[in-house]
């Protein structure tokens, strides 16, 4: 070592100090005598490229950034496999784990960060790994050599790259992710959804909203168990849930450490002559986990060490995922707030989603999926804070875009395959409509109806048929104006429902992407509607979107004007018993229920109950067999009955029994709006069946079926559906009617309005005259009942969604100046 | 500047995404919301219209729709949106290591610095 030179020691030999040394040496290679200490037993390499090493695209030697020769040439002494154990700032020395002490005049701490390991039981089993350095990659490749199954915990950048790599190595891989969407820190939920689709297409299983409870195995890992009880068998677990700055060494030395080692704009720590650099640093309360900001720091630190000007003022970061076939980019801050506006472009066919967030006249957030060609341009606009007012209208189309252009609202229809069914009633597919239009030179909707039968039955496909006409005939055809569902789309309810079916769309984000929604996550109008349409279409596997439901349906009680709730248990057909009444009386006493009322629907309402008390109230009511009366639901409400032939001198049939049977058969499934029934024992009609959504009037020869009555905002007598002679037929016809309404009704449209729209005669014909259609409708209804007939009160009495009701306690108060 | 008064109220995971929790604090109820992009907001739980419990509404973008008569309230400013007029109080929120804190300085007299226990419940 040359005498007189200042001594620069560096702890950690990662990417940040590698870059810093390059700057330093390029300026002045003689100023310092430099020694660098690294825990890893090797030279410096490009950590980002570990993912290509894991997939097998690259070897370790390909990713070395500074080899032994480089250190020699630049007179830098590299101590490999030499972790530093302590720093003593009072005498300006550092000590290695072997006890050797070195003096410094300037010290740089660049210890990077360490993977965070979630402290679940089994986290220490063999076969549980992290993803940080070359040794981890070597271990993973070794573990993958026999194929087998792997679980990656964490669906962020690192986790997904690990998953893709292990998949490439021949393992079957499941990613378990806590949040509802992948990479939620970098992507909004719409892009997260597309990413999930792409990963699944590759053959990687993704489970979101999944909390890992434990890892099981005797010596080595054998499965991951989730909080909901699911168990995923595997031989390898990779934890990639996040990183934390390695700041322990600095903290022990008495430096100011918060989340990371705190530095000022010159990268100086709280201690004289001690700098920090890279992922271990916290600057202005920010800790970075990507390499670009570290390179900016590296440049500033090199200047500082050379006593040149230069300040680090923080960085704007952007993220990309290095998984082949997946193009995504995100940068800046894309959270919503009042000062911000968003521009969204979706191209369903190409799987493209772009969202730009604008604040004032500047771009402040970017999310691109599927097409990232303009990422550099956008990022540049963002970083430079350029005013975008002048080209705001065309900004979303990218740098190369010239001229105006709007997203075509009929794109979703154009994209349908030829054999997609357009008219469900008559089984007519897209190509036969288009062919008819061209061969018969059809130009009006009526002509198309008479030639193809499409749109001639229930009429719910009219919008789609019209769109096909304008696609085929061009501007000469002007489709009738459709009222869009809401401000987020140009499509009407019918079109959305049919497209959900023909495109087989199974989640709210899938609908929004494929049908090119113009907002990123919908609004309070479309979300509940879409949720219902999906529940109805895919009863067995659609996962209800809790947060898209109105409060009453979320907590299974009716909210009151003062924020309390009312509870209406089911009183089947209006019948009750001493036991039931006693249970109600006990609940009223025990919970001090302020009001008890007989409702207009032949039941008893307990009003004014605090939200916290609901599960307990339900538990007590459940003890005598009470279940939810769904007084809050878009679903079956009450079935009113009269006493019927059991008691009444005019009664012709067992109207009470039939009412109870109908109620027990029909409760559960969601419907577009609420549904109320009544069964009267004779035409005197004491149960008021002729103003209900569905009514039955018993007569000597059997049962008159009624529907489409109203006695609320509108008053309207029912229409006659038809006559049947047995109770069984009453049930089958009503189940079919209800299903037809479920499949065609617009969200919030009561039965009488739906019947007016599609035609009372169409309904009659399809239910009364078309037996096979009736049987199919009925079968679909009962398929959905299979999963829907679960008493929500019982579930909540047992603890489901307890957080919704139960108070949390005891937190501390902190006063900050 | 007025002293800030931070209360630890929940873990981030306690508040469902696009959902809300209630916090009963010194006689009033504060509503905590978590939006789709994981931002947490805290505002008074009483709708400026007729006092409806905003915590029970549907959360969309950075707004909540009141469950009683559908007023839309900005979670950021507490202001009613569209043609409706009115405002609820907003509280500063910060998240430290997944712990959610809110500034309740409008509720309490400034206290000497330090940490003390105050019973707070959220449901
Ligand atoms: C409790 C009850 C009044 C009573 O004390 O008797 C009642 C109470 C409410 N009705 Fe009703 N309706 C009640 C029977 C009726 C009836 C009569 C019936 O069911 O035989 C009607 C006329 C028939 C009908 O449904 O059309 C009725 C027509 C309405 C309407 C108008 C619906 C329409 O489309 O025209 C609404 C508003 C709505 O649903 O949008 C409504 C809405 C409401 C709501 C849920 C208002 C709300 O959204 O908060 C009320 C809840 C009060 C509460 O906090 O519990 N209520 N409501 C009755 C409960 C019956 C039950 O046992 O479930
Ligand atoms: C698999 C993977 C893929 C990534 N992909 C990307 C990407 O695509 N884009 C991107 O921007 N970023 C990516 N990153 C992040 C990027 O690699 C880091 O931001 C960057 O490497 C951090 O540099 P650093 O110098 O601060 O720390 P590191 O590179 O972590 O270096 C720290 C070094 O210090 C050593 N050390 C720690 N403590 C001591 C001690 N007491 N004594 C001696 N030595 C010690 C460590 O062993 C380590 O070698 C990726 C990271 C990984 C793991
Ligand atoms: S009639 Fe009006 S006030 Fe009475 S319960 Fe029905 S909705 Fe409420
Ligand atoms: S109380 Fe909120 S809208 Fe009426």
Provide an overview of this structure.
The complex is a heterodimer of chains A (817) and B (123). Chain A is built from 26 helices and 42 strands. By secondary structure, chain A is of the alpha/beta class. In chain A, the strands form 12 sheets. Chain A has a 5-stranded parallel beta sheet with strand order 5-2-1-9-21. In chain A, strands 11-18-12-13-14 form a 5-stranded parallel beta sheet. In chain A, strands 24-25-28-27-26 form a 5-stranded antiparallel beta sheet, with helices on both faces. In chain A, β12 (149-153), α5 and β13 form a beta-alpha-beta unit. In chain A, α6 (189-202) crosses α15 (508-514), α11 crosses α13 and α21 crosses α24 (771-788). Chain A is elongated, with a radius of gyration of 34 Å. The relative contact order of chain A is 0.06. The model of chain A is unreliable at 402-407 (pLDDT under 50). Chain B is mainly β and 123 residues long. Chain B has a domain at 11-93: 3-layer Sandwich (Rieske Iron-sulfur Protein), CATH 2.102.10. Chain B contains no helices and 12 strands. Chain B has strands at 4-11, 19-25, 28-34, 40-44, 58-60, 63-65, 72-74, 90-91, 93-96, 99-103, 114-118, 121-122. In chain B, the strands form 3 sheets. Chain B has a 5-stranded antiparallel beta sheet, with no helix packed on it. Chain B has a 3-stranded antiparallel beta sheet with strand order 1-10-9, with no helix packed on it. In chain B, β6 (63-65) and β7 (72-74) form a beta hairpin. Mean pLDDT of chain B is 83; it is low at 109-123. Classes of the chains: A alpha/beta (817), B mainly beta (123). Chains A and B meet through β42 of A and β1, β2, β5, β11 and β12 of B. The complex binds siroheme, flavin-adenine dinucleotide, iron/sulfur cluster (SF4) and FE2/S2 (inorganic) cluster. Residues 47, 49-52, 66, 68-71 of chain B line the site of FE2/S2 (inorganic) cluster.
